Amino acid sequence: MPELPEVEVVVRGLKQQILNCEITKVDVLSKGVRTRFPENFAKNLLNRKVIDVSRRAKYILCYLNMGGILLIHLGMSGRVIIQQKASYAFQKHNHLVVEFGNKVLIYNDYRRFGDIKVVKDFNPSNLGLEPLEENFNVKTFMALVKDKKTNIKSFLMNQKYVVGIGNIYACEALFLSKISPIKIASNITLNEAQVMVKNIKTVLQSAIGQGGSSLKDFINVNGESGKVQNNFWVYGRKGMPCKICKNEIKTTKQQGRSTFYCPNCQGF
DNA sequence: AACACGCCCTGCGCGC
DNA sequence: TGCGCGCAGGGCGTGT
User: Fold this and answer.
1) Fewest beta carbons less than 10 Å away: which of A16, A49, A97, A260?
2) pTM score, whole prediction
3) 3-class DSSP state of A251
4) CB of residue A115 closer than 7 A to nucleic acid strand B?
5) Rg (CA), chain A
6) Which residue's alpha carbon is at the shortest distance from the C1' of B9?
7) DSSP state of A143
8) Between the CA of A235 and the C1' of C3, what is the distance in angstroms?
9) Are A21 and A48 contacting, i.e. CB atoms less than 8 angstroms apart?
10) Whole-angstrom distance, CA of residue A142 vs CA of residue A186
């Protein structure tokens, strides 16, 4: 599911729902997701208060009092849902239930590509620029693409350069920028970089405003779907007419993932 | 070093 | 109706 906008939507929902709330009970319902829950996982969380919720890349960071961060990554199919405790009912693939008095936070993930753990701090050295921050700009973008022999789509999706962009928003940003997904990153011109930086910010920001993209899995903490999927330019539109030039949208594979593009608009 | 690929999982839609 | 196949938004480990 989740790229930057979807994770951001979840983070904002969590802020509204569990900020300053104390963890009153933790139910571990499975062995874990991508990695196993450690022995002391539940005990570590008990009686601690959520003092802030933020996002770094596609990670959700729930800061706890007395130090430490509950770190959640949604993988492909992870969902974080907040419900009234009274209306909670077990669903298949629920892995974790964290109670905050009369509210519960549920982590559900059928593919188990997500990750949940408590960490002391979170400053990974392998995460790149936040695309919505000011230091993601033409200058930093040009510095990054310099010498990169990989194609621009793979570059955009590589979290060590720019974070938060996955398959959907890479396709969408490249389409809006009229750039071929197979263009070699180092061949990006200054003019193209300007257009791309602007479009990446716009696409992500607009998706946040629309509550994210819900293909099949994504819902926010209140169980609601996003709306971006109704407005994709190219993603998922194979064989359909380009919304700009009416030519047929095509797909190709890059690094094992589907790329959607307009051959006419993007020159490929 | 930089890059490509396979794999971790479950579920769904499609063609036969 | 049922089965097998391919495919799905991420990220990591491994190989070249």
Assistant:
1) A16
2) 0.97
3) strand
4) no
5) 20
6) A111
7) H
8) 30
9) no
10) 8
